[in-house]
Amino acid sequence: MKAGAAFSADWLALREPFDAAARAASAPLLQALRARAPASGPWRVMDLGCGTGANLRWLAPRLGGAQQWLVIDHDESLLARWDHQPGFAPSDAGRLRWQGAGFSAEVLRRQTDLARGFAALPWAAAQLVTASALLDLVGEAWLRALVAHASGARATLFFALSVDGRHAWSPRDPHDAAVDTLFAAHQRRDKGLGPALGAQAVPMLARLLRERGYRVRLARSDWRVAAPHDPDGALQRALIEGLARAAQEQDPAQAPLVRGWRERRLAQVARGRLRVGHLDLLAWPAR
């Protein structure tokens, strides 16, 4: 993605344990994914918008065997953090190596703008194209280009943790729906990859892939934000602040309503619960 959709390393670290817990719910997709393993040689994986590497850290041990990852992000500072990840060791030609029980991953980092540099990526070499928490940021043209490149390479696709628009709060607030509507409109702004599809990204990708002869499977991977998983309420507070900020930017005239919602939500963090809807998508060529 472009710099306009940058995410801080602190935010990525805050969400990683919730991402990992949520992805456990879509574990049945993994069995189908592992069945697509290459008959010989390592998995060749391309990770789009890789950030600090949470997707690789979750997926590589579960894929198993030898793997070659090309990890791509526009943010050089996030890519530099991979040097300090526990267990990652320098390899040849600037690569990193990460290995554990039953797997060994060779990692090549590339700084690339996913708007301007997308077509030039080495699609023909990719057997698996993956990303985490990326799809809702992209537009239709970008999604169509992804399908064209990936299907041309007959690559498998595994996209995790794409929001589907569901926010289930407990206890409820009379203005939850109003804030959600404003946030959803803000989410569809252009993040650098075209007018963002938000919650419609996964249904559109599934349709486009089926039109190309792909088999598609979906599974829920919802965040469950509450104690004991969020003991100090850090993620819940971050989400409340983010939703309120986006809602006010979307319609400043609604600022009094949003401020009241934010104050009530923050006051309820200790006993509040939130379920954020996500979908994981796995797709592979039918023939």
CATH fold-level label of one domain: Rossmann fold
Q: What is the beta-strand fraction?
A: 25-35%
Percent helix:
25-40%
Regions with pLDDT < 50 over 5+ consecutive residues? none
Q: Total number of helical segments?
A: 9
Q: Round the Cα radius of gyration to an integer and report it.
A: 19 Å
Distance between the termini: 31 Å
Give the C-level CATH assignment of one domain.
Alpha Beta
Structural class: alpha/beta
Give average pLDDT, whole number.
Answer: 94
* Global geometry: globular
CATH architectural designation of one domain? 3-Layer(aba) Sandwich
Structure write-up:
The chain has 287 residues and is an alpha/beta fold. The protein has a domain at 9-167 and 195-224 and 276-285: 3-Layer(aba) Sandwich (Rossmann fold). It contains 9 helices and 10 strands. It has helices spanning 9-23, 27-34, 54-63, 76-80, 140-152, 176-187, 201-211, 234-250, 255-267; strands at 43-48, 65-73, 89-90, 96-100, 103-111, 128-132, 156-170, 214-220, 223-225, 273-285. Strands 1, 2, 3, 4, 5, 6, 7, 8, 9 and 10 form a 10-stranded mixed β-sheet that branches. The longest helix has 17 residues, at 234-250. The chain is globular, with a radius of gyration of 19 Å. The two termini are 31 Å apart. 36% of the residues are buried. The mean pLDDT is 94. GO terms for molecular function: methyltransferase activity. This is Class I SAM-dependent methyltransferase. It comes from Hydrogenophaga crocea.
